Amino acid sequence: MATFDDETRRRVAAVFDRLIPADDHPAVSGAGLFEHLERLAADEHTVTLTERALELVDVLDDRARTTFGAGVDDLAVSDLDALISGLEWDERESLVQRAAEAYYGGADTPGARMIGYDARPRRSPGAPIEPPVVPATALADCDDRYDVVVLGAGAGGGVAAWTLAEAGARVLLVERGRALSFDDVGRDHLRNHRSSVHGNNTGPAEDGNPREWVDRRGQVVSVELPHDPRWNNNAMTVGGGSRVYQGMAWRFAPDDFAMASTYGVPDGSSLADWPIAYDDLESFYTWVEHDLGVCGDGTAHPASGPRSSGYPMPPLPTNTEAAVLGAGARRLGLRTGPVPLLINSEPRNGAARCVQCGECVGFACPSGAKNGTYDTAIPRALATGNAHLVTGTRAVEIVVDDDGSVRGARLVDEGTGRERTVHAGDVVVACGAIETARLLLDSRSSRHPDGLGNAHDQVGRHLQGHSFVSVFGRFDEPVLDLVGPGVSIATVDHLHGNDGVIGGGVIANEIVKLPIVHWRWAYQPDAPRWGLGAKVEMRDGYRTTSHLFGQVQEIPRADNRVQLGERTDALGVRVARLQGAAHEETIRAARHIRGVAREWMEASGAHTVWSDAIPTGLTAGQHQAGTCRMGVDPTSSVTDPDGRVHGHDNLWVADGSLHVNNGGVNPVLTIYALARRTATILAATR
To answer: What is the DSSP secondary-structure string of 359-371?
Structure first.
């Protein structure tokens, strides 16, 4: 634990105040620096960051005394700047990051106020804000048997439970995480699912939940913390990722369901057609849009596929950035329109509308306007009286009888350690693509020695997400209103039909960025990283920098996969081992989408344009999919076209694991639609 006596404080302040000095706004030492360092030092996972900062200050102080005969707190500004410049890049960057976190890492920091960031709601909710009722049942109080046990209360599991409970089935919905209130999720800009600098704001716990990662050399590496990018976390809480998502509500395009027929199968890929077509899912897409609630313009994006109905709500209000980018798109002949969102743009069904705050993705909604399963499907399932929700509970095994037939699930209360087996007529697995595959692989028996559904070594293969590319543009005048959510214009013209490219992706503008996210992601690369020049760059660049991003359809590879690791977690359960890399055709498509986004930004009038590097590794975090792909042939798929695991009449999958490929857009609407379809079929078989 770091302690800051007066002498230490003087030395630390002298160094850090050269990184972010005073002008019309305070220097970093008077803007929460010591509180930030103390907070880091109080956490066993971040204490080394404070220790490293103090070590580097001591290094500078020693060099100051050796070179100039005085400590850092007595040096001339030019001499101290020279010493800081003489640090190795990674040493200096470590100090700069701590300073930036303290200055820009919150809604009420001096840095946030300096750049004009304001997280407060910009309009009224239009209706009373009524938090959903999500009562949980203790595992000890659950019944011994249910008609259906649904494992995972995220996007797919929530919709499946609602569909089944409405159909009259008695359902137990099991969630590893907790039901987090708005205050529980919190507003920490350094610990959330958009800015996981030092942690996440949902589960799992940081201790006792490692995963394994296979690096580029084939070496197995232990990944201890769930917010490490290699862990590939999706939120583990009631509602899953839908508790904190942005809610982009795109349908997969018709050609997404026939990729192999359209493009052929590239060498080294496992590209395949779905066993169902867009038309098989269209009515379920419509159901989701109307029953959960999507705002948008149903006529704006014809490339997304034919529709039987428009959206039930108009799009959210547009903004200056959309007007600027819209003019550029017209110069290029791009068709654009608003982004469909699982957010109430107006009060609906007793729920409030979006209040357009500046803290959206990564956080819970202050007005409850995000239509995730926490706010919609799960409360409605529980309200039927046919469903129980148990939280803080792990499914550690899908139980089979002596002939190998599925009979229920072995569950463990993570708080008490109590274990029990709950029997069921059907089991639905919806733990997310990584944990669904891991659970099936770890549910081994004499009849299924390699795990359930894995007779042909298919469970866990074809793991995918989305490759994201970003293009930034700097304008002479402000282009950002900072009115949330901010994302308001997109084109889907390049989902398909790109010369020399397999697939493609949507291109859209970004949400309102947290100040620290702008500093880490959208900061102009040739600008000063520290000193007064860096402070001016943040102040001048925050509102004048536009951001277009494209999410690119990944070409699946069979070797991108989930396997069982050698390590075990706090419950003694074998952890997931992840490995994979981007296919060369994914990289080619990403370059194309990045090029289109760059042309769009330039045509919109940006005087300086830059972009991120193309991802080349595994990208299976919040958009994870594909590990239990559906198909007709059991030798190349895990489930049948209905989502039922091959060889089992009562074992189903209802999450992104089913996706044969993951489209060039956000997958959540397809997860919802498939879960509704699978649960409807299951209900009809009972």
So the answer is: --TTS--TTS-B-
Hey, what are 497's tokens? 């039909």
In the chain (686 residues long), the average pLDDT of successive 10-residue segments reads: 83 98 97 97 96 97 97 97 98 98 97 97 97 96 98 98 98 98 97 96 96 97 97 96 97 98 98 98 98 98 96 98 98 98 97 98 98 98 98 98 97 96 98 98 97 98 97 98 97 97 98 98 98 98 98 98 98 98 98 98 98 95 96 98 98 98 98 98 95
C-alpha–C-alpha distance, residues 246 and 164, integer Å:
27
Cβ neighbors of 87 (< 8 A, separation 6 or more) are 56, 59, 60, 95
Distance between CA atoms of 484 and 194, rounded to whole angstroms?
Answer: 15
The CA distance from 604 to 599, in Å, is: 9
Distance CA 354, CA 136 (A): 27
Neighbours of 87 (CB within 10 A): 16
User: What token pair was written down for 372?
Assistant: 């995730």
Amino acid symbol at 162:
W
Structure tokens, 660: 């044969």
**Through-space distance between the first and last CA atoms of the chain, rounded to whole angstroms:** 59
Q: What pTM was computed for the model?
A: 0.98
In the structure encoding, which two tokens stand for residue 312, read together? 């039930």
